[in-house]
Specification:
The chain contains 14 helices and ten strands. By secondary structure, the chain is of the alpha/beta class.
């Protein structure tokens, strides 16, 4: 019997973006059994938009928060009310490819011990331009199960393996963990995914099955560029990791996690339209010498300036295995060339 699938979609004042996300769900080749849209006390026309999709999505149910809970609080409410054994925790500003649910449900059913399954997502800016793919480094080149021991090995080389827009989770394991930790804010979903994968393993599908639309005002982006906020969240997550090092998380992972979190935030600041050396140095927590180097290249043209800053951050913070990064880029290039050749022949 096919696994029952619940979609949990929190929303806060995204009336203009909701149609894209809901139409993408309506176009799934394998429909979700229920779609819970949690409106987090929106002040725009979001609730009217959601109700208007009832004809396209009869399994849709609107849950209204009378007071704002925040994105993580809204997700936790959806998790409590969901009835599916498997859940998809989406975002109202992202979109799924039509084959996402069919592909990932099949992969998860084939590996019943796995806690979650994830694929690749394309990263698109507000103008619709392709910015890259996530995860940056691929954990596997082919579809397959990654055991807890293999996950621990991968986390020594890379991180940020789980992208919510292209991931499904076993709900009972999330609830056993107490749901998403609201104290971790924008880090809560990726933190929980790491823990679940280290305890039960995960399935990876090396195929692009969703679109992560980068919004300058999104929770994750605004948090990552707030020096004090991201430092506090990173420290809170690192403390939790440290308590479980050697039991759940690999020994020494708290320090590695902190370095990677600093790199991720500083990288976002590097690609911002306005190059701010002080902000980049503060996010990287690299002090005045960092500011000196970044100030030196601040007058360079945008592209070489960004490349130089990213190389410098890579050398200072060592966020990932460079050979693994290059191999992932090569796999994606070969896949792209094969696709283009196939289209040309067709």
């Amino acid at each position: 019997m096919p696994v029952r699938l619940s979609v949990i979609l929190p929303n806060r004042n995204h009336a203009a973006l909701l149609p894209r996300a809901l139409l993408a769900l309506a176009r799934q080749t394998r429909q979700a059994d229920e779609i819970l849209v949690i409106d987090d006390a929106s002040t725009d026309g979001s609730r009217d938009v959601i109700r208007g999709f009832a004809a396209h999505l009869p399994q849709l149910r609107l849950l209204e928060n009378p007071v704002r809970l925040g994105a993580v609080g809204a997700l936790n409410r959806g998790l409590r009310e969901a009835t599916g054994a498997v859940v998809y925790c989406g975002a109202s500003d992202d979109a799924t490819d039509p084959a996402l649910f069919a592909t990932l449900c099949g992969a998860l059913e084939a590996h019943p011990s796995a806690a979650l399954v994830c694929a690749e997502a394309r990263l698109v800016d507000e103008a619709g331009r392709l910015q890259g793919f996530r995860p940056i480094t691929l954990p596997r080149w082919r579809v397959g199960y990654v055991s807890p021991q293999q996950t621990a090995g991968l986390l020594r080389q890379m991180d940020n393996l789980f992208v919510s827009v292209v991931a499904l989770y076993r709900r009972d394991l999330i609830m056993e963990a107490g749901g998403l930790d609201e104290r971790l804010g924008a880090l809560s979903d990726s933190f929980l995914a790491r823990r679940m994968a280290l305890q039960h393993g995960f399935v990876f599908v090396p195929r692009v099955l969703g679109t992560w639309h980068v919004q300058t005002a999104s929770l994750s982006r605004s948090t990552s560029l707030d020096v004090d906020r991201i430092a506090a969240l990173t420290a809170a997550a690192a403390q939790q990791i440290q308590r479980d090092e050697g039991r759940v998380f690999p020994p020494g992972y708290s320090e590695v996690f902190s370095r990677r979190a600093r790199f991720a935030s500083a990288r976002l600041a590097v690609v911002e339209r306005q190059f701010d050396p002080r902000l980049i140095a503060a996010l990287a927590q690299e002090g005045d010498p960092a500011h000196g180097f970044l100030a030196l290249i601040a007058s360079w043209p945008a592209r070489p300036r960004r490349i130089a800053a990213l190389i410098w951050l890579m050398l200072r913070l060592r966020p990932m295995s460079v050979p693994r990064l290059l191999m992932s880029a090569a796999v994606r290039l070969m896949r792209s060339l094969a696709y283009r050749q196939g289209r040309a022949v067709g």
